Amino acid sequence: MFVLALLGPQWSGAVGILQAMCLVAFTLPLSFFAGSALSAAGRPDLFFKLATAKLLTVSIFIVIGAQFSLTAVGFAWSGAFACIVPLCLFTLQKACGVNWTVGTKSALRIAAAGLGFAVCALVTINWMAAYDWPMLLSLLSGIGLGFVVYAVLLEYVLLPGFVRTALKEIRIFFVRAAPETERASGA
């Protein structure tokens, strides 16, 4: 719906593909920094092997998905990255001694909050659309309520104190980034 509201009805064919590709948001954070971590640990050889495995996996999945439809390619792309996660985590554990279970538990909790966001946003958007609310207003309301559900789930249910700590760190970052003259004058 967001694509249609922003880009118009001529983009309706892309909606299913983009929805399928968005599923990668649940798994990509678990493997995204594996290559950088391997490089930092002085293991560019493993980084190269991991990158090659990713390339081959994504290529195979996309070729298989292409046999069915463009939407299937989107699902295949997301599925390929999901299949790469265990390889990345075990490689990091062997090469760097990283205990991946701790980070994975937090990541799964954040993914659960993301699922709460998605469900809330979709329910809100569809409910408002059923009552003929303007599409852009429905989208903004759904996203806004979904964000509130996401933050509440993280802060009070899944990772207590996570949001508060993140906001505190952001504030500290901006205070440190402000030039000395602005801090001294209180601006």
Q: Report the sheet-strand fraction.
A: under 5%
- What kind of sheet is the major sheet? none
Distance between the termini: 41 Å
Helix proportion range:
over 70%
Structural class: mainly alpha
Mean pLDDT across residues = 87
- Could you name the ranges where pLDDT drops below 50 across 5 or more consecutive residues? none
Q: Which term fits the overall shape?
A: globular
Helix segment tally:
10
Spatial extent as radius of gyration: 21 Å
Instruction: Give the SSE string.
Output: HHHHHHHHHH
Query: What's the total count of β strands?
Result: 0
Question: What features would you describe in this structure?
Answer:
The protein has 187 residues and is mainly α. Helix content is 81%, strand content 0%. Helix 4 runs parallel beside helix 6 and helix 7 packs antiparallel against helix 8.
Task: Briefly say what this structure is.
By secondary structure, the chain is mainly alpha-helical. It is 81% helix and 0% strand. The protein has helices at residues 2-7, 15-22, 28-31, 34-40, 44-66, 70-96, 100-130, 135-158, 162-177, 180-185.
